[in-house]
Protein backbone atom coordinates (compact mmCIF):
# COMPACT_ATOMS: atom_id res chain seq x y z
CA UNK A 1 0.00 0.00 0.00
CA UNK A 2 1.30 3.41 -0.93
CA UNK A 3 0.92 6.00 1.84
CA UNK A 4 1.09 9.63 0.89
CA UNK A 5 1.68 12.14 3.64
CA UNK A 6 1.62 15.88 3.10
CA UNK A 7 2.83 18.36 5.58
CA UNK A 8 0.56 21.41 5.88
CA UNK A 9 2.58 24.63 5.99
CA UNK A 10 2.45 26.41 9.34
CA UNK A 11 1.19 29.68 7.87
CA UNK A 12 -1.84 27.89 6.42
CA UNK A 13 -2.65 26.44 9.84
CA UNK A 14 -2.46 29.90 11.38
CA UNK A 15 -4.69 31.32 8.64
CA UNK A 16 -7.24 28.54 9.14
CA UNK A 17 -7.28 29.19 12.88
CA UNK A 18 -7.87 32.91 12.32
CA UNK A 19 -10.75 32.24 9.93
CA UNK A 20 -12.32 29.80 12.39
CA UNK A 21 -12.01 32.37 15.17
CA UNK A 22 -13.70 35.03 13.06
CA UNK A 23 -16.55 32.69 12.18
CA UNK A 24 -17.09 31.73 15.80
CA UNK A 25 -16.97 35.40 16.81
CA UNK A 26 -19.57 36.30 14.19
CA UNK A 27 -21.84 33.50 15.37
CA UNK A 28 -21.45 34.71 18.95
CA UNK A 29 -22.37 38.25 17.93
CA UNK A 30 -25.46 37.01 16.13
CA UNK A 31 -26.46 35.01 19.19
CA UNK A 32 -26.47 38.08 21.46
CA UNK A 33 -29.96 38.52 22.94
CA UNK A 34 -31.92 41.69 22.33
CA UNK A 35 -31.50 44.31 25.04
CA UNK A 36 -34.69 46.05 26.07
CA UNK A 37 -34.76 49.82 25.60
CA UNK A 38 -36.88 52.66 26.99
CA UNK A 39 -39.97 53.06 24.83
CA UNK A 40 -40.30 49.32 24.13
CA UNK A 41 -43.65 47.71 24.93
CA UNK A 42 -43.42 44.34 26.69
CA UNK A 43 -46.14 41.73 26.77
CA UNK A 44 -46.43 39.94 30.12
CA UNK A 45 -48.53 36.82 30.57
CA UNK A 46 -48.96 34.82 33.76
CA UNK A 47 -50.39 31.37 33.10
CA UNK A 48 -51.82 30.96 36.61
CA UNK A 49 -53.54 34.37 36.74
CA UNK A 50 -54.73 35.90 33.43
CA UNK A 51 -55.72 39.05 35.34
CA UNK A 52 -52.02 39.91 35.44
CA UNK A 53 -51.68 39.66 31.67
CA UNK A 54 -50.89 43.07 30.23
CA UNK A 55 -48.78 45.19 27.92
CA UNK A 56 -46.41 47.52 29.72
CA UNK A 57 -44.33 50.41 28.47
CA UNK A 58 -40.68 50.67 29.42
CA UNK A 59 -40.48 54.17 30.89
CA UNK A 60 -37.69 56.64 30.05
CA UNK A 61 -35.89 55.64 33.26
CA UNK A 62 -35.89 52.02 32.03
CA UNK A 63 -38.48 50.51 34.36
CA UNK A 64 -41.79 48.68 34.09
CA UNK A 65 -44.57 48.46 36.65
CA UNK A 66 -46.42 45.18 37.27
CA UNK A 67 -49.01 44.44 39.98
CA UNK A 68 -47.62 42.43 42.91
CA UNK A 69 -44.12 42.55 41.39
CA UNK A 70 -43.92 46.33 41.68
CA UNK A 71 -41.37 48.34 39.72
CA UNK A 72 -38.81 46.29 37.84
CA UNK A 73 -35.70 47.41 35.96
CA UNK A 74 -35.98 46.32 32.31
CA UNK A 75 -33.83 48.60 30.18
CA UNK A 76 -30.51 47.08 29.16
CA UNK A 77 -31.64 43.58 30.12
CA UNK A 78 -32.54 40.59 27.97
CA UNK A 79 -36.15 39.40 27.88
CA UNK A 80 -35.18 36.19 29.71
CA UNK A 81 -33.64 38.21 32.55
CA UNK A 82 -36.79 40.30 33.03
CA UNK A 83 -38.91 37.17 32.84
CA UNK A 84 -36.84 35.49 35.57
CA UNK A 85 -36.98 38.60 37.76
CA UNK A 86 -40.77 38.83 37.44
CA UNK A 87 -41.16 35.14 38.24
CA UNK A 88 -39.21 35.61 41.47
CA UNK A 89 -41.17 38.70 42.47
CA UNK A 90 -44.57 37.18 41.72
CA UNK A 91 -43.78 33.91 43.50
CA UNK A 92 -44.95 35.28 46.85
CA UNK A 93 -48.50 35.54 45.50
CA UNK A 94 -48.75 31.90 44.43
CA UNK A 95 -48.49 28.51 46.11
CA UNK A 96 -45.98 27.43 43.47
CA UNK A 97 -43.68 29.53 41.27
CA UNK A 98 -45.85 30.92 38.47
CA UNK A 99 -45.23 30.45 34.78
CA UNK A 100 -44.40 33.94 33.52
CA UNK A 101 -43.83 34.72 29.86
CA UNK A 102 -42.34 38.00 28.66
CA UNK A 103 -41.97 39.08 25.04
CA UNK A 104 -41.30 42.31 23.17
CA UNK A 105 -44.65 43.36 21.76
CA UNK A 106 -43.45 46.55 20.09
CA UNK A 107 -40.08 48.18 19.70
CA UNK A 108 -39.54 51.78 20.67
CA UNK A 109 -40.24 54.19 17.84
CA UNK A 110 -36.92 55.68 16.74
CA UNK A 111 -36.73 59.43 17.00
CA UNK A 112 -36.81 61.07 13.57
CA UNK A 113 -33.62 62.77 12.51
CA UNK A 114 -34.02 66.52 12.66
CA UNK A 115 -31.14 68.40 11.09
CA UNK A 116 -29.83 71.20 13.20
CA UNK A 117 -30.87 74.56 11.92
CA UNK A 118 -28.11 77.14 11.68
CA UNK A 119 -28.48 79.64 14.45
CA UNK A 120 -29.23 83.20 13.50
CA UNK A 121 -26.17 85.29 14.34
CA UNK A 122 -26.61 87.87 17.07
CA UNK A 123 -24.76 90.45 14.99
CA UNK A 124 -23.50 90.85 11.44
CA UNK A 125 -20.50 92.72 10.08
CA UNK A 126 -20.88 95.41 7.41
CA UNK A 127 -17.85 97.15 5.93
CA UNK A 128 -17.92 100.82 5.00
CA UNK A 129 -15.21 102.17 2.70
CA UNK A 130 -14.62 105.43 0.87
CA UNK A 131 -15.98 108.87 1.65
CA UNK A 132 -17.93 108.00 4.78
CA UNK A 133 -17.56 110.05 7.93
CA UNK A 134 -16.70 106.89 9.89
CA UNK A 135 -15.35 104.24 7.50
CA UNK A 136 -14.56 100.81 8.85
CA UNK A 137 -16.45 97.79 10.09
CA UNK A 138 -19.93 98.19 11.52
CA UNK A 139 -21.17 95.51 13.90
CA UNK A 140 -24.93 95.66 13.65
CA UNK A 141 -27.89 93.42 14.50
CA UNK A 142 -29.53 91.34 11.76
CA UNK A 143 -32.23 93.12 9.71
CA UNK A 144 -30.39 96.43 9.88
CA UNK A 145 -31.35 98.56 6.87
CA UNK A 146 -29.18 100.59 4.52
CA UNK A 147 -30.59 103.84 5.91
CA UNK A 148 -29.77 102.78 9.45
CA UNK A 149 -26.23 101.93 8.39
CA UNK A 150 -25.85 105.39 6.84
CA UNK A 151 -26.78 106.88 10.21
CA UNK A 152 -24.32 104.62 12.06
CA UNK A 153 -21.43 105.59 9.82
CA UNK A 154 -22.00 109.24 10.63
CA UNK A 155 -22.97 110.44 7.18
CA UNK A 156 -20.50 111.42 4.46
CA UNK A 157 -17.51 113.62 3.85
CA UNK A 158 -17.87 116.68 1.63
CA UNK A 159 -16.19 114.72 -1.17
CA UNK A 160 -18.75 111.89 -1.22
CA UNK A 161 -20.65 111.10 -4.40
CA UNK A 162 -23.92 110.53 -2.57
CA UNK A 163 -25.82 109.54 -5.72
CA UNK A 164 -23.39 106.77 -6.70
CA UNK A 165 -23.04 104.75 -3.51
CA UNK A 166 -22.62 101.01 -4.05
CA UNK A 167 -23.80 98.07 -1.98
CA UNK A 168 -21.59 95.10 -2.80
CA UNK A 169 -22.61 91.61 -1.73
CA UNK A 170 -20.73 88.34 -2.25
CA UNK A 171 -22.69 85.09 -2.37
CA UNK A 172 -21.06 82.75 0.16
CA UNK A 173 -21.98 79.67 -1.86
CA UNK A 174 -20.95 80.70 -5.36
CA UNK A 175 -18.50 83.48 -4.56
CA UNK A 176 -20.22 85.76 -7.09
CA UNK A 177 -20.38 89.46 -6.25
CA UNK A 178 -23.38 91.63 -7.04
CA UNK A 179 -23.42 95.41 -6.94
CA UNK A 180 -26.47 97.53 -6.23
CA UNK A 181 -26.54 101.29 -6.79
CA UNK A 182 -27.78 103.45 -3.93
CA UNK A 183 -28.84 107.07 -4.24
CA UNK A 184 -28.69 108.72 -0.83
CA UNK A 185 -30.78 111.84 -1.67
CA UNK A 186 -33.55 109.55 -2.98
CA UNK A 187 -33.28 107.32 0.09
CA UNK A 188 -33.46 110.35 2.34
CA UNK A 189 -36.65 111.34 0.50
CA UNK A 190 -38.18 107.92 1.25
CA UNK A 191 -37.06 105.66 -1.61
CA UNK A 192 -37.40 101.93 -1.00
CA UNK A 193 -33.64 101.44 -1.36
CA UNK A 194 -33.24 102.68 2.18
CA UNK A 195 -35.22 99.72 3.51
CA UNK A 196 -32.86 97.17 1.94
CA UNK A 197 -31.77 94.71 4.63
CA UNK A 198 -28.05 94.29 5.05
CA UNK A 199 -26.38 90.89 5.25
CA UNK A 200 -23.22 89.70 6.93
CA UNK A 201 -20.18 90.69 4.86
CA UNK A 202 -21.89 93.45 2.86
CA UNK A 203 -19.67 96.30 1.69
CA UNK A 204 -20.93 99.87 1.36
CA UNK A 205 -18.67 101.80 -0.98
CA UNK A 206 -18.97 105.58 -1.01
CA UNK A 207 -17.02 106.85 -4.05
CA UNK A 208 -15.40 110.26 -4.38
CA UNK A 209 -17.17 112.95 -6.36
CA UNK A 210 -15.98 113.69 -9.84
CA UNK A 211 -15.10 117.19 -10.89
CA UNK A 212 -18.23 119.39 -11.13
CA UNK A 213 -20.40 116.53 -9.79
What tags apply to this protein structure?
elongated, single chain, three-stranded antiparallel β-sheet, 4 helices, five-stranded mixed β-sheet, Outer membrane lipoprotein wza fold like, 213 residues
Rg over CA atoms: 38 Å
* Number of helices, where a helix is a run of at least 4 consecutive DSSP H or I residues: 4
Instruction: Tell me the span between the first and last alpha carbons.
Output: 119 Å
* Average pLDDT score: 85
Integer tally of domains: 2
Main sheet strand line-up: 7-6-10-8-9
Poorly predicted runs of 5 or more residues: 1-6
The structure class reads: alpha+beta
Which CATH architecture of the largest domain? Answer: Roll
- Describe the global form: elongated
**Percent of residues in helices:** 10-25%
Largest sheet: 5 strands, mixed
Tell how many strands the DSSP assignment holds: 10
The CATH topology of the largest domain corresponds to Outer membrane lipoprotein wza fold like
- At the first level of CATH, the class of the largest domain is Alpha Beta
At the fourth CATH level, what is the homologous superfamily of the largest domain? Outer membrane lipoprotein wza domain like
Strand content: 15-25%
